[in-house]
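S.,

Sequence below, as promised.
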Amino acid sequence: MKKTLLAAALGLCALAPGFASASAPETTIRLHYSIPTIWANTQEQLANAFMAANPDVKVVLDGPADSYEDGTQRLLRESVAGKLPDIAYVGLNLWRVLQARGLAQPLDPFIGDMKAFDEKGYGPAVRLGQYKDQTWALGVSASTLVMYVNPDLVKQAGGSMATFPTDFDGIIKLAAKINALSPTTDGIWIEPHDWRFQSLLGAYGGRPMNADETDITFDSPAGIAAATLYQRFAKEGGMKTYGSNDARQAFPAGKLGIMLESSSLLNRFVQGAGDKFNVTVRPLPVMAPANTVYFPTGGSGMVMLATDPAQQKAVWRYMQFVTSPAGEKIIVENTGYAPTNSILVKDDSYLASYYEANPQARPAHQQIAKFAGPWYAYPGDEGVAVNDLIAAALVNVTDGANPAETIKSLAATVRTRLGMK
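The prediction came back faster than expected:
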């Protein structure tokens, strides 16, 4: 496996207790991550900054996986071969797969006093990796599904950002008008994907599972309404069936009017659009009472895979650094993800200049603050397979299959795969 070895810089560690002196034996930790288009540069910056403050630790970056799903499957294979890395960034819906296999190490012994931990900004958003009152992962980046809008195409279609619709009916009508502008202009697009489906489900007040995770609940009216949107986007709004890479090129190129996508892609889209148009962000419509709405928090969390005590101590120091204000500042400024450490939100000195230069980041961060919820991870060894089943069902609905029948059949299949009924 190709690895990038990052050179250690000299410095003193003032961040975490138990820091070893520069003369202490060097500890090397291997780090796994995914989605290099978002994370490659950021991971190198984080590792370099950490090593500058911790000269007794070397961080080796494994070659990245293309997606969180691919990365999780790789980790499972490496566990069989006895070649697991010491720390891994995984999707916030996938750390449970590693926990269920006994690979993720519990973090509570390292956290210690939770109240003191929280007071340093390591609050609920950081602790998105909790299950049954134990912490298995630390959230390092947060994203939410938002609408990226091309205001020029909206204007050409007879609309304006001042009167931009706040419900899905209005959005679909506007998308249809944008789609009709020319043969090379598309109205709207969303990927058939579990996290995106969960976001639409949450907009209608639904949940994928019940509270104790003993049954599937996305076959509710809310789930059927969410799935129906995929079909309406295609039939009424002009959504094409191209893949995510094509869509992520079409939007900044000015050929796609409305794109429902992760807030983490803001920087990429702004840079891609350049002077062609001003990328504008709008929150998702809220289609149910606000106290029932939730939007799953996308992004990634870190899990400790090391079992050697010395490496665990080094990994924990790294995890603390990445989720500290200094580490989170690097992540926000380079990826567009929202921070998980609450100090950055409370103290303007960290991100004031970022928000001034990136005003479109605020809608996503505000949506996370209002409606953030867990990215439901389907339990057990079949969790990753369930995500694939959901994506396939959404493709069928987009292509014309009956939404209610498809979602009810999907729920029955998932129950069987997960051994629920």
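The CA atoms of residues 374 and 411 lie 20 Å apart.

Coffee later?
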